[in-house]
Specification:
Rossmann fold, alpha/beta, 12 strands
């Protein structure tokens, strides 16, 4: 039985942050759900990880830790709890399981997939390695475990450049995000090719290229365009525009700052500008606005990630209550994926 004072305290917290954007009756319902989840996680010795893309009422109520993929991967590796509930999409929960094979890892919705993670398979990686023998494979964390298992090292948007530079090789395969690869190639001065666009084409060794990419994209970040930026700047010439590296290289170049979600949050916290615009998932913009009520946050929400949107307080409660939607990995795949993820964590 949840005490009224506990629920009231949760409502006060959420109302203080979100009353300008979320209706009061909804906040009261969510406060009850959050209070029950928080009590249940204590009873079950569970930890809840919340990605920056979670909707505000969840983001500010139940996670023990919030952050981007890299931060949450580190927290997952350090936890001593029996159960990990990952409020994020499936590949994130898989990463937590890779790092914690003896823990029970739950994802609140089995529908929480990812367009980018689905853009490449383990067989695709094996084919790339056969076509470019000896070239190390850098795999973005936004992939499933079997793809990570075929890789040499993983990376996040926050440490991708550092990971590529750490290899000290003439060539590197970077998968699966086409735009992130393009942004990393630009920042590291590498020429990039996309052989999977033309599988029959041969790429001789004398051709000038240093990075091999893959045409996978995030269905949210690919929506943002340079035209969007031009139009916003016409109306708000003094706006500071922050773009996620999963946006196209053209969008990133037209923006003022580009980095991981955590770096974007810190940048807003530490800078002063008349207006801010975040080119990333809608809920993160809401979360940053709630945490920075003194700053003028503009809205350009082309699309809410349908996969992140599957994670709700209601489903999180049911997942923890029933311990359902557990992540189970083949041990051989997990062990090989662990090597790639562990190498990433050492890069920082």
């Amino acid at each position: 039985m949840i005490s009224q004072s506990t629920t009231a305290a949760m409502y006060d917290k959420l109302s203080g942050l979100l009353s300008k954007t979320v209706p009061d009756f909804e906040l009261r319902i969510k406060a009850e759900l959050a209070a029950e989840i928080n009590q249940l996680k204590v009873e079950k010795n569970a930890v809840i990880l919340g990605h920056n893309y979670m909707e505000p009422a969840l983001f500010y109520s139940i996670p023990d830790f919030v952050g981007d993929s890299l931060e949450l991967s580190r927290k997952a590796a350090q936890t001593d709890k029996d159960i990990i509930v990952f409020c994020g999409v499936k590949f994130m929960a898989e990463t937590a399981k890779i790092l914690n094979p003896t823990k029970k890892v739950l994802v609140p919705s089995e529908k929480a997939g990812c367009s980018l993670a689905s853009s490449i398979t383990a067989e695709d990686v094996r084919n790339l390695k056969a076509k470019f023998p000896g070239v190390p494979v850098v795999t973005y964390i936004n992939t499933y475990a079997d793809v990570k298992a075929e890789s040499d090292i993983c990376c996040t948007s926050g440490n991708a450049v550092a990971v590529v530079n750490s290899l000290n090789t003439d060539k590197v395969i970077f998968i699966p995000d086409e735009y992130l690869a393009g942004n990393v190639a630009r920042e590291t001065g590498k020429q990039i090719i996309y052989p999977s666009r033309d599988p029959k084409q041969n790429f001789p060794g004398e051709l000038d290229y240093q990075m091999i990419g893959w045409p996978g994209r995030c269905e949210v970040h690919e929506k943002f365009t340079v035209e969007d930026i031009v139009n916003i700047r016409k109306q708000f010439p003094d706006v500071l525009i922050l773009a996620h590296p999963e946006c196209s290289p053209e969008v990133v170049e037209a923006s003022d700052f580009s980095a991981s979600t955590t770096a974007m949050i810190r940048y807003v916290e530490k800078t002063r500008a008349p207006h801010y615009l975040l080119l990333t998932e809608c809920s993160m913009g809401d979360n940053v606005a709630a945490a920075n009520p003194d700053k003028e946050m503009l809205r350009l929400c082309n699309v809410r990630c349908p996969h992140m949107n599957e994670i709700t307080l209601e489903d999180t409660l049911e997942s923890l209550r029933k311990e359902q939607f557990e992540i189970v990995l083949d041990e051989d795949i997990r062990q090989r994926a662990y090597v790639a993820v562990e190498r990433m964590l050492h890069i920082g």
